[in-house]
Each structure stands twice: as C-alpha cells, then as structure tokens.
Design goal:
The complex is a heterodimer of chains A (284) and B (351). Chain A is 33% helix and 27% strand. Chain A has 10 helices and 13 strands. In chain A, the strands form 3 sheets. Chain A has a 6-stranded mixed sheet with strand order 6-7-8-3-9-10, sandwiched between helices. Chain B has 351 residues and is of the alpha/beta class. A 5-stranded mixed sheet of chain B has the order 2-1-3-4-5, with helices on both faces. The chains are: A alpha/beta (284), B alpha/beta (351). Chain B: Keywords: Cell membrane, Membrane, Transmembrane, Transmembrane helix.
Chain lengths: 284, 351
C-alpha cells in the first residue's frame, strides 16, 4: 500500500537533512507505528507522504501512485488526522464534516454517523470553536474518516484525551484495521504503539534505526525476567528472577510449588526502554 | 470541481455571515450614503479667478472695458493679461480659474470663455451667463459667446459635490474592500490551520482561492447596490458599475491573497497592506484635484478605475473608459490570480 525508498528532505535545501534516506513498506491492512521523539523526522515524513511537503529526493508511492506528483485520486485514497485540531471554528461540527465531505469524489460517510461514532452526537450543531480541546481532536479524527480512506494517517490520535475517549478511539482504529484500512500511526506514545501496531519503526535524527513488530523487538532487546512477591517467615519479599538462568528457574519453580507467591509479573522491556537501548535517547 | 467550488463558497459565506462581514458592509454603505445625502454640502466651491485679454479694438471696446472694470470692482480675482496664450498659461498655474478672451469676427466682438473642465458647472454657468447678459444688456444686441474647455477628459457634468464623492466610496469600499477583508479571512484560516486539512483533500488551491474572491465580489456588489441606490437611485449605469466592481474586486482580492500567502497575521503584513492601500488611494487626489494628475498616479490601475466608476455612476456617454477599464482589469485579475495560486502552492506547506 505504501512504499518509501531512500527518502530525504532538507528544509534548508542543502545537506542538512531532517529525513536521511529512510526506506520502508506498509502492507495493506497493517498498522504501522512511526515512533520517535520530537524533531526525529516523523512529521516531516508524514508531511511528504500526504503532499504537504514536496518530495525532494527519493521515492514514495501510495497504492502505486507517485507521491511526487500527487493526483486527485491519491487524495481520495488517504485520510489525515492531525495532532493539532484544525477545524473551521465558525462552522458547527456537522458543517465542518459536511463541507469536507463535498471535497471528495469517492463514496463518503454520513457526517452524523461519524460524529456519533466519536461521541459528538450531542454537539452536532454546536460551533466547533466552542468545542473543548478533546472534542476538537475527536472532530478532526472523525473528519479523517469521511472518505473511508484506504491509507489512514494518524498523528498522535489519543494525545490529550481522557482514558474513556482514548479507549473508544483505539477501538475505532482496531475496527478500521479489521475492515482492511492501512494505518500509518505517528506517535511518541509507546503504549498505543505497543497496543495497536503490527510493526513499528524507530526513527531518530532523521534515520530509521529499526523496524519490527513490538513482540519481536521485546524478545530481541528485552530481558526474560519475572518479578515475584512472596511470603517467607511471615515477611514479604520481592525478587526479580531470570527465566533463562537455571538457578533462578529452580527458585521460581520452588516458590510456585510451595504456593508462597502472592504476585507475579513478567518483566519484558517496554518499547520505550528498547528505543533508549537502540537510539541512546528517550522518546519524549 | 464545481461541487467543491460551491462547497467552499457555502463555507466562506457562512463564515462571512458569522463574522458579521455582511452586516458591516451593508451598515458602512448605508452610513456613507446618509452622510453623502444629508451631511456633505452640494456646493463647496470658491469663486474662481478670471484671467482676461481683450483683443477686440472695434467701436464697442469702451463698453466692454466698462463691464470688465465693473466686474473687477465686484470680484477681486479678475486679472488682465496680454494674450490668449497668457490666459492659458496662468490658468494652468492656477487650478481654480477661468479665462475670458474677447476677439473680433466680421467687425463684431466675440467672447470666448475658457474653463478648466472640472469646475462646478453651476458656478461657471452662472458666471458666464451673468457676464454674457451684462455685455448684451450694455451693448443692446447679442454677441457671440463660445466656451472652450481645457481638460475635456475630466469634465464633470452637473454633479453636486456631495454625490461626486460616491465614486471614491465605490472604489475604496466595494471594489478595494476585498483587499483587506480577504486578508482577515485567510489569516483566520491560517490561525485555525484549516488550510493544511484542505491541502490533504482532493480540493485544489484554485478552487479555494476562487471561492474567497467570489465572497468578496458578493460583498462588493451588495455594498454597491445599497450605497449607489440610496445616493443616485436608478440614474446610474448599473450594468457597467457591476462589471467594474466585479473586475476590481477580483483584482484587489487576488492581490490580498498574494500578500496573505507570505504572512501569518495582519500585524506582520501591516506595512505592505498600508503601503498598497495608500498607493491605490492616490488617484483620489487627482479625482478631487483634476489638475494634479502626474504620470505616476495615472499609471496606477485605480486611476482609470475611479474615473470609469464615475462614468458608470454619472453617465456622460463616454463608455470607452468603462470598456477599456474592464478589459485592463480582466487582464490584471487573471495575472494576479495566477500569481496568487503559485504563491499559495509555494507557501501553503509552510503553513
């Protein structure tokens, strides 16, 4: 669905590249997470792929259409949910979607259905300028679905949302994936990436450091440990035991057999820890 | 493409209504019309100076001298010069002046009045008539009187002063209104970031800009109808006036779009907006003081536009100025629109 090869971009049009020769492919129906800290090149890459920045060097195509020469057909295929809400404040939520709907020449969704889906059914006729930040973000999210995009660009889709709303948004993303939508998820939130993405790319200083599934990355970079809490001589003890080390494994078996364990947690690495390990810097 | 254009236009009209653009435009037009009709006097002119030379040496010379001397007593600005050429020279130096040259034809005196062309006709006619009557009365017979106008192209036909400022309003409000109003509209959308959302849709930049220009045309026409209707009623050539307001609006709005593409808010673009506004307002000086029309003012597009608007509001039959101005502005509008599209294509991503 999306092919990127040797993509470069320089804002100053010299050798000072914000994106340095990145390459990756996303298969149809896949959720691809683009993880990196601020200034890593995530937004630049997304802007190039959505036609907001010109493609200076390299190749990129969406469903076979060259991103360098974006056509009306390409824009009918994609949907973009921006991190910062960009809506017409003088129009109502409904009017915002109704206007946007008319820009497309492919079958579109009913604005009211979309507004209901993101929990804005009670604010359909309210001016978008009077929405709260979270409501505006949901409106932008809903707008990006108006043309039933085949490739859906999501930029920090749950940033700033309350847990219930964030959970609803994540459910919609999963549902869309199940329906075959390809999703390009840009974020520095490793939890959402871990939960939703089939594969993630770690981007740092304009370069992709690693691409793999969250599970493989954890297996490759994480340590196989369990953290246990158990009672011994009426005293609560905590210990981290390796699942590879024979001595630790024996001890864990003994604790299990004796029924002394009160809590037990697997201690695989988080994506953030792996990111730090790979790039030497944090995601924030 | 048309669907998108109409969707954009509907969105821009709703935005315009909710930002009170329509209310403000109609209110300003009504206020201006009321000021013109009830507060500005119809006649603000000062009696002009007279330069005269009497070449006639026949038997009525004494009577003519007597009449002129009488005028000199009543009117302090009557000046004797030595030739017709000197009359014209002095008139060119003094804007508010007329000339009188008395010559001879077949042994009879012939009086030629020379006017600038832009004087208040009522004053000139009264002056000429009174002198003509005095001469005829004194000589006891009719003599030939002819009137020569120096600046025929700026001749104003019986337009009261208060109504004569209507073309200035029509130039600054309905026609040039788009220049500033479109900036406000674009800067609001830049602040909202909505142009980025538009740029990732199939919508084209030409449609985006065309809908904004259309809104400015609609506002311009409403303002024109309200103000012109109240001030001159049905006496204007509305078809020509609408044509001029439409092409002028397209030009000024497209120019506003070019400026708006390079800045993010009004304060950043203020110097450019003020400079262009002042530059385009300069022809108003020539309108009010027709003798002051240097080349640098005449080459400004608003110069012919202002006089063409006047011709449309107060028709004198000089339709060429309307046609040529509309044609000029069609060319200018196409050029500025193309430039605005390119400047948006270059700068939109930055926004």
């Amino acid at each position: 669905m999306l092919k990127v090869k040797n993509l470069y971009h320089s804002y100053t049009k010299d050798d000072n590249y914000a994106v340095k020769g990145i390459s990756f492919e996303i298969k149809k129906g896949e959720i691809f997470g683009f993880l990196g800290p601020n200034g890593a090149g995530k937004s630049t890459t997304q802007k190039i792929l959505t036609g907001l920045l010109p493609l200076q060097k390299g190749e990129a195509s969406i469903a076979g259409i060259d991103v360098k020469k974006p056509t009306e057909k390409l824009f009918n295929l994609i949907g973009v949910s921006f991190e910062h809400p960009n809506i017409y404040s003088k129009l109502t939520g409904y009017e915002n979607l109704e206007f946007y709907k008319k820009l497309f020449s492919v079958p579109t969704e009913d604005p009211k259905v979309l507004l209901k889906m993101v929990g804005l059914e009670d604010a359909v006729n309210k001016k978008a300028g009077d929405y709260s930040k979270g409501m505006k973000q949901r409106l932008v999210f809903a707008r990006s679905l108006i043309n039933n995009p085949q490739l859906w660009f999501l930029d920090e889709p749950i940033s700033g949302l309350d847990p219930t709303t964030a959970s609803n948004i994540k459910d919609i993303i999963k549902k869309k994936k199940d329906e075959g939508t390809t999703i390009f998820l840009t974020t520095h939130n490793m939890h959402i990436a871990d939960e939703l993405c089939d594969r993630v790319a770690f981007i740092n200083e304009g370069k992709i450091e690693v691409i793999d599934s969250p599970r493989n990355l954890k297996l490759k970079y994480g340590e196989q440990l369990v953290k246990v809490e158990y009672k011994e001589n009426n005293k609560l003890k905590r210990e981290r035991l390796s699942l590879i080390n024979d001595k630790d494994r024996d001890k864990l078996n003994k604790l299990v057999n004796e029924g002394k364990i009160e809590t037990i947690h697997s201690q695989e690495a988080t994506l953030e820890e792996i990111f730090i390990k790979v790039t030497g810097r944090g995601l924030k | 493409m048309l669907n998108r254009y109409f969707a954009l236009l509907k969105k821009d009209i709703i935005t315009g209504v909710r930002n009170y653009y329509f209310v403000v435009v109609i209110a300003v037009a009504i206020i201006f019309a009321l000021i013109v009709n009830f507060l500005v006097p119809e006649d603000t002119s000062i009696k002009p100076a007279i330069f005269y030379h009497v070449e006639y040496q026949g038997d009525m010379r004494e009577n003519i001298d007597e009449i002129i001397m009488e005028s000199e007593r009543e009117h302090p600005n009557v000046n004797r010069v030595n030739s017709r050429e000197e009359i014209i020279e002095n008139m060119k130096k003094k804007d508010n002046s007329i000339g009188m040259f008395v010559t001879e034809s077949n042994g009879k005196p012939v009086i030629e009045f020379i006017t600038q062309g832009y004087e208040n006709k009522k004053v000139i006619n009264t002056l000429v008539l009174s002198m003509k009557n005095s001469i005829n009365e004194s000589l006891g017979r009719k003599i030939d009187v002819k009137t020569n106008i120096l600046n025929k192209d700026v001749e104003m036909e019986r337009i009261p002063f208060n109504k004569s400022i209507l073309p200035i309003f029509l130039l600054t409000e309905p026609t040039m209104l788009g220049f500033v109003l479109i900036l406000a509209l674009v800067f609001m959308e830049k602040d909202e970031g909505t142009i980025r959302a538009y740029m990732v849709s199939p919508g084209r930049i030409q449609e985006y800009l065309a809908s904004k220009i259309t809104l400015m045309i609609i506002l311009g026409l409403i303002s024109t109808i309200v103000c012109t209707g109240i001030v001159v009623g049905f006496n204007a050539n509305y078809l020509a006036l609408f044509g001029l307001v439409i092409v002028g609006s397209i030009f000024s709005s497209a120019l506003g779009l070019i400026i708006a593409s390079f800045f993010d808010n009004l304060s950043q673009s203020f110097i450019w907006v003020a400079a262009i506004n002042i530059l385009f307002a300069l022809p108003m000086v020539s309108y009010l003081l027709p003798s002051f029309a240097p080349t640098y003012i005449k080459i400004l597009p608003t110069y012919p536009l202002l006089f063409a608007i006047r011709e449309a509001v107060f028709p004198t039959g000089n339709v060429e100025i309307i046609y040529s101005t509309i044609l000029t502005f069609i060319v200018l509008s196409i050029m500025t629109f193309i430039v605005s599209v390119f400047s948006y294509k270059i700068t939109a991503a930055r926004d």
